[in-house]
């Protein structure tokens, strides 16, 4: 049985993320979608909201072989903890690939039992990133082709609260 881990901050989870998750469930026996807690980032959505959104979307898409969790530490330590042998990554560009190549090399040194598998993003998600989605939503733009309706609603809610606080 091949257990894979797909980690990220998922702030917010995009349709590109969901595409990688869907494809990962087709490739591996089980897939842990891990929301990595990154102390260097200030997420727009809380950890609980991101967990709920990802879980809801995976349920809606009937991705039963995938589960959502969070981890505050090295992702290779999570892999070791759950017995995962694959780190799944998605890339949209040559720059993404370069960064993922370096990370895969480092992760292999830290945990030799796990290999990184890289999926190329579907062409319709090449320009979709969490950073772009957050920027567009803050400027009242349309992100409906980049995120699910539930994620869009959560983002609009948080953006409206931020504007009230100004």
Can you describe what's shown?
- The structure is a single chain.
- The protein is α/β, with parallel strands linked by helices and 166 residues long.
- The chain has one domain (3-165): HUPs (Rossmann fold).
- It is built from six helices and five strands.
- The protein has helices at 15-27, 47-60, 75-82, 94-110, 130-138, 149-165, and strands spanning 3-8, 30-36, 66-71, 86-91, 115-120.
- Strands 3-2-1-4-5 form a five-stranded parallel sheet, with helices on both faces.
- It is globular and about 45 Å long.
The value of Rg in angstroms is 16 Å
CATH class placement: Alpha Beta
Spell out the helices and strands N to C. EHEHEHEHEHH
Q: Number of folding domains?
A: 1
Topology:
Elements: E1 3-8, H1 15-27, E2 30-36, H2 47-60, E3 66-71, H3 75-82, E4 86-91, H4 94-110, E5 115-120, H5 130-138, H6 149-165
Parallel strand pairs: 1-2, 1-4, 2-3, 4-5
Could you give a short description of this structure?
The protein is an alpha/beta fold and 166 residues long. It has helices at 15-27, 47-60, 75-82, 94-110, 130-138, 149-165, and strands spanning 3-8, 30-36, 66-71, 86-91, 115-120. It is built from six helices and five strands, in the order βαβαβαβαβαα.
Keywords:
five-stranded parallel sheet, Rossmann fold, 6 helices, single chain, 166 residues, globular
């Amino acid at each position: 049985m091949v257990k894979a881990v797909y980690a990220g901050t998922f702030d917010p989870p995009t349709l590109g993320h969901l595409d990688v998750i869907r494809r990962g469930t087709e490739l591996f026996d089980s897939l842990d979608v891990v929301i990595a807690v990154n102390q260097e980032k200030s997420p727009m959505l809380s950890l609980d909201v991101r967990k709920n959104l990802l879980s809801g979307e995976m349920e809606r898409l009937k991705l039963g072989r995938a589960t959502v969790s969070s981890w505050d530490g090295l992702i290779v330590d999570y892999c070791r903890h759950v017995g995962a042998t694959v780190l799944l990554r998605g890339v949209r560009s040559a720059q993404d690939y370069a960064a993922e190549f370096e990370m895969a090399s480092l992760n292999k040194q830290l945990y030799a039992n796990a290999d990184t598998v890289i999926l190329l993003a579907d062409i319709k998600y090449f320009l979709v990133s969490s950073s772009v989605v957050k920027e567009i939503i803050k400027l009242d733009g349309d992100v409906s082709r980049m995120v699910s309706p539930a994620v869009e609603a959560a983002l609009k809610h948080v953006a409206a609260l931020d504007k009230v606080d100004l």
